[in-house]
Structure formats: C-alpha cells, structure tokens
Design goal:
Largest interface: A-B, 33 and 43 residues
Order of helices and strands of chain A: HHEEE
CATH architecture of the largest domain in chain B: Orthogonal Bundle
Number of helices of chain B: 8
Shape of chain A: elongated
Number of domains of chain B: 2
Structural class of chain B: mainly alpha
Distance between the termini of chain B: 56 Å
Helix content of chain B: over 70%
CATH class of the largest domain in chain B: Mainly Alpha
Radius of gyration of chain B: 17 Å
Largest sheet of chain A: 3 strands, antiparallel
Number of strands of chain B: 0
Oligomer: heterodimer
Number of strands of chain A: 3
Radius of gyration of chain A: 29 Å
Structural class of chain A: alpha+beta
Number of domains of chain A: 1
Number of helices of chain A: 2
Largest sheet of chain B: none
Chain lengths: ~160, ~170
C-alpha cells in the first residue's frame, strides 16, 4: 500500500520531467487570433466613448440656463449654425454650435510599444498602441460661454520588426 | 488593450498543449485543437465568470475531443503516437545526461496510462490545476477525479518498481 510520502516522491519527479513545448507557430497563431479580436473591439469602444461624451455635452448645453427671451412674435431661429444675432428679438432658444464636420484638434498623444509578436507565417512585428485625446470647443456668441468636449481615441499600429 | 485570454495562454500553454496532446496523441492536431478553442473563446463578447483556467482547459479538452473524433476515420499507427515529453537528441550528450533512466521510465509509464488518468496527471502536474479545477474542466465529480489521480500515481510508482527490479 503506497504511503502519502510515496505519492509526494512521484509528484516531485513529475515536476522535473521535460514536458513537450508547443511550437512557436502555435504561439503566433493564438496571438494573432487574440490581436484580431482585440482590434475589432477597440473601435467599438472608442465610438461608444465618443457618443457618451457627446451625449453628456449635449445635456449640459440643453440644461444651461439661456438668457430670457424678450417678448416678441418673431419666429425663433432654427439654430442650424452660428449666426450673428443683431436683429432685436431674434433669440435662438438653443445654443448654436459650430459645424459638426469640423476636425477635432489633437491635444495629447502617447505611443505604447508592446512586445514582439509573430504573424502566422512567423514574421516578427511590433504592436504599438497610440492613445490620443482630441479637443473641440465652441463659444456661444451671445452669452460668451464656452462648451468643450474631449474625445479619447486609441488605435493599434503594426510595425514590421525589420523597420526598427 | 490586452485580451484576457493572453495571460491564461502565457501561463498555461504547456499544460493546455499537453492536455490536447494527451487526447489526440498527435502534435499538429493538438496545436489545431488549442488554436480552435482559443478562436472560439475569443469570439465571445463577455468574459466568463467562475474559474478561468478551468474554463479554458475545458474548452481545449472539448476541442481536442472533437479533433480526435474527426481523426477516428484515419487512426494513428501506434508507432506514430506522440509522446508528451521531449525526446533527448542522440547528438546532444548534455541533454541525454539530464534525462535520467528513471525519468525515461516515468515518461513511458505516463504515456501508457489510461486516458482519464493521464489527463488528470497532465492537468495537475504540468498545468498546475487543483483537483477541483480538474473536476470542473472534465465535468467529472471531484471524488472521481481524486480517485483517478491517486490511482495514476499508484500505477506510476508500481511501474517504476517493476522497471527498477528488471534493470
């Protein structure tokens, strides 16, 4: 009848055996699969973050107390874009904002180099994650108030190892 | 951003490959099984709850069983069955010296264990899983896994004694 000590001895011997390693090809295949999946998730996250920020900025703008509108029968402006508000009584009810297609300003960026990885064909490459923050500000010409958003952005850049 | 599976693969690649190899007994098919399991898990949007290593070992084991079923139509000749261990190279005396005679006997004894006992030994000794995690990964009761593991150790010890007596 084997004793616990006998089993401990066998277990210790098992720990010292030269267990077969998977090939580097498998490492590369798994890394490539996980990378692909992470990349397909990142744009979705960035979009979600941008939409959330944009939504909260909109709420702040909407709930900002607007200056009291003078009594008038003049129809209100549609607020489609910034416009001079010289005409008396022509007060837009909603703060107007700039052209939404205008580019955001890049205000901060950081590159993080990850470890060397391998393509399924065994070629080495470096993955660089570039984090950035874009900024956009609008000024309400009537009240002088400034509204601004910061949009975080992240992208994955793959660089061939031989280019280093 | 890192995928949660990356750390598990890095820490358990040998154990996972060993488990797959233990099921399919052919290196290329074992690698296919590991990759297939990771590809399936990576597609899942939500990270699973519970014991992650046990979950991943279960996925790899299932993929290896699928591979083995697909390969049943063309059975592997006995001489082509892959060992779970590195074979010392004939032209490398240093490596040969490192692998003692006792180790060689033990490796052969593990390769010859019944499938369920070999799986338990691989997951426990080479993957570092607890008996509870092995039970979760294999879907067997903890008491069964515990008996299988003890039985396997007993068999290995017995085999070593016989080999030493014959030497």
């Amino acid at each position: 009848m084997p004793t616990p000590d006998d089993f401990n001895e066998i277990e210790a011997m098992l720990g010292g055996l030269p267990v077969r390693e998977p090939s580097q090809m498998l490492d590369a295949r798994v890394a490539s699969t996980l990378d692909k999946q992470t990349r397909s998730t990142l744009p979705w996250l960035a979009t979600a973050a941008a939409v959330l920020i944009a939504a909260s900025v909109t709420l702040v703008i909407l709930f900002n107390p607007a200056p009291p509108a003078p009594d008038t029968d003049t129809p209100v402006a549609d607020g489609s874009d910034t416009q001079p508000d010289d005409a008396p009584g022509n007060t837009p009810p909603i703060l107007t904002v700039g052209n939404p297609t205008e580019a955001l300003n890049l205000t901060w960026t950081r590159d993080i180099a990850e470890e060397t990885r391998y393509t399924p064909t065994g070629e080495p490459y470096r993955a660089v994650v570039r984090e950035a923050v874009h900024h956009r500000a609008w000024v309400d010409t009537k009240t002088g108030e400034t509204s601004q958003i910061h949009v975080p952005h992240e992208e994955l850049i793959v660089v061939k190892q031989s280019t280093f | 951003m890192k995928h949660w599976l990356e750390d598990i693969y890095r820490d358990h690649r040998r154990g996972l490959f060993g488990l797959a190899l233990s099921v399919v007994r052919e290196a290329a098919a074992a690698e296919d099984a590991v990759h297939e399991a990771f590809a399936r898990m990576a597609k899942q949007r939500d990270r699973p709850t519970g014991d992650l290593p046990a979950y991943v070992y279960k996925a790899v084991r299932n993929a290896a069983i699928d591979q083995a079923r697909r390969r049943q139509a063309r059975p592997t000749p006995t001489e082509d069955i892959a060992s779970l261990f590195e074979t010392p190279r004939e032209d490398d005396p240093g490596q040969r010296a490192e692998t003692s005679e006792t180790q060689t006997m033990l490796m052969q004894a593990i390769d010859n264990l019944p499938d369920d006992e070999r799986e338990a030994v691989v997951m426990r000794s080479f993957g570092g899983l607890t008996l509870k995690q092995i039970a979760e990964a294999t879907g067997r009761p903890l008491t069964t896994v515990s008996s299988q593991y003890q039985r396997a150790l007993g068999r290995l010890r017995q085999q070593l004694e016989v080999s030493h007596a014959n030497a």
